[in-house]
Amino acid sequence: MSSAEETGDGEPGGRTHTGSLAHRVPELGALELLLAVARLGSLGGAARHLGISQPAASSRIRSMERQLGVALVDRSPRGSRLTDAGALVTDWARRIVEAAEAFDAGAQALRDRRDSRLRVAASMTIAEYLLPGWLLALRAQRPDTAVSLLAGNSSAVARRLLSGEADLGFVEGVSVPAGLDSAVIAHDRLIVVTAPGHPWARRRTPLAARELAETPLILREKGSGTRQVLDAALGGLARPLIELSSTTAVKAAAVGGAGPAVLSELAVGEELSMRRLVRVPVADVSLARDLRAVWPTGHRPTGPARHLLSLTRSQRS
């Protein structure tokens, strides 16, 4: 008596159930082929129905028979007929294929739900001056996707992504917030601006970086990408003259003559051209910065988020 028979384990002949289920159960395509043979009564007809060659179909049936250890199809010049074992396996296969179809339908429903909305979180400069164009391009290509935009500073963008409140984010700080992966999607530069009546507007020499660092400025709040970049570039800042929570508010205060400000070039093009603001050159400091798309580490954007990310790159190029 074999050890399998003595213990009651395994199958007659010493066969045991080893390995994963995927190695013991035929693949879905083979089961679909067997169902087609049962329905059409011909291996050739089943092959044509599934869009494969007859030799490939024969090979798939033989492989399944070897895997199961039983003959499934009797082949003859008059066609193909299921064996008794083949008829039984076909009944089981039908249930598996029906379950797979239900699985596929459910997965498609999940994709449809995912693709029906996109939640974007963006820091203020990007939200005000770049995202509108990107979202218009996305709407032209995906009109059925509803987009919601959450604007805030770079720290708030990171929190929303990590808490699952947003699908894709855009930031403008010095570094990538912890827990996020990123891709550079644009470049920007911060510039010093004042109203035309400010003494700096009449300077004949560039402003020294030290003087800028020691001067109270109209600034964004702590946590904003603009303030992070400026603080890092100057090695520290004086106490703010005014602290405001949006680029538009900082710009309005500067235009009104409240004092000098440091803003993105993207934000002040119109004001500079109309002389409502004057650019003040600064010596010995670089205020260039990268603008980045961000998402939770290890979770590459999919669906509409991936599409929007590709649009930012195409418009950059």
From TrEMBL:
Family the UniProt entry places it in: Belongs to the LysR transcriptional regulatory family.
Keywords noted in UniProt: DNA-binding, Transcription, Transcription regulation
Sequence ranges assigned to domain HTH lysR-type in this UniProt record: 26-83
Keyword Protein transport among record annotations: no
Gene source species: Streptomyces fumanus
Signal peptide: none
Source organism, top-level taxon: Bacteria
Protein name per Swiss-Prot or TrEMBL: Transcriptional regulator
Lineage of origin: Bacteria, Bacillati, Actinomycetota, Actinomycetes, Kitasatosporales
An annotated Gene Ontology molecular function: transcription cis-regulatory region binding
Record has Zinc-finger as a keyword: no
InterPro entries attached to this UniProt entry: LysR_HTH_N, LysR_subst-bd, WH-like_DNA-bd_sf, WH_DNA-bd_sf
Region (Disordered) location: 1-20, 297-317
